[in-house]
Predict the 3D structure of the following.
Amino acid sequence: MEQSTKDRILDEALVLFAEKGYKGTNLRELAARLSLSKSALYKHYDSKEAIWNALLDKMEAYYAARFGSMDHLPQMPDSTEEFFQMALGMIRFTAHDPQIILTRKLLLTEQFHDARVCKLATKHFLEGTARIYTKVFESMMEKGLLKKEDPAMLAISFTAPISAFIHLCDREPGRTTEAFDKMETYIRYFLTSHAPQ
Amino acid sequence: MEQSTKDRILDEALVLFAEKGYKGTNLRELAARLSLSKSALYKHYDSKEAIWNALLDKMEAYYAARFGSMDHLPQMPDSTEEFFQMALGMIRFTAHDPQIILTRKLLLTEQFHDARVCKLATKHFLEGTARIYTKVFESMMEKGLLKKEDPAMLAISFTAPISAFIHLCDREPGRTTEAFDKMETYIRYFLTSHAPQ
DNA sequence: TATTATAGTGACCAATTGGTCACTTGTCAA
DNA sequence: TTGACAAGTGACCAATTGGTCACTATAATA
């Protein structure tokens, strides 16, 4: 089915807001990219700020769906190798998906200028992924794949370095393969380092 | 001695650029904060961009001095407790110093809009601190305070979570004590988790 | 067919903003 | 004393930008 103009505006707004920031985005360019006149935008949204807010609504809905329930947990791995593949797969997706890349950029660059972005940033960068991996590690400890420790602590200590390398990919795409090399060795290191005994 | 107007401009520019971004900063407000007329700014810098570039020059010089040589290494700790105190002290300073807070904000929010900021961000958030802790952990391994592992890997795995919590302090200052609680328990966890045998 | 709502256009407006310029002031040296 | 230079001022300019408005076109409906 066709995508409504209202949705197309939001999609293109994400691109511009992420690349140029809220202040740096101007409605003439947004309209031009959609082959619309600027005044047409106002048929769908009342103001620049209204577009911004609608975009944040959409993002909040996304995170509520993704982190709000326990439905989106990955399959619990039965071996360290399975964990390795699963984690790497999730990382690859998150690091390469254009929409998610833009979302990260927007959250990073606007986190100090907007209270809602601030909240979303904490959810995305700190609490969201950590919660998922807490569950995964709990399960792996029960299965004897990991030494028994505080799973939440372990999740942060796994998640944060990965996150730092993904930020590197966002910032300097030319260093993506280097970053992935390091992430792979990091995951291997992590698994042996926290292996039982 | 008195601070020159040229330097005062740069100091206040850091505040505005960090809080409002490059695009969001206007020269009238910058001038007003310095009790100057806008045209007076042009007696010291040729343009808004020139102020921006001078600020980046200063920051680059700072990082070159701080991370370029091995002079600024902390004292190598002789016990895990000493490490704990040293690390916590460095973190406290870095998390509370107003200038450094502003610098972090500027690096985060402008990293995708300026190539020089991009390079500085990688240096600040990834390579700089990791290099310092690599040296520290090397020394601690030799002294038998830590299990022998790849010190660079260990540095990233120590540094990244701390960094994530400092970002939380920047973003939501109201959660600073909560963040420090978590950092303290994280450092303790880290030390026991990587203790020899 | 006439009507009405929706989507879209282009001209226009007012505020903001980076930048320029002629002019003043104060200090220091010849 | 005077001339020169650095520092500062306020008025002004032009470009950008968010927003409005009268108008058109099209499609569905009463």
Notes: The mean pLDDT of chain B is 96. The radius of gyration of chain B is 20 Å. The domain at 1-60 of chain B is CATH 1.10.10.60 (Arc Repressor Mutant, subunit A).
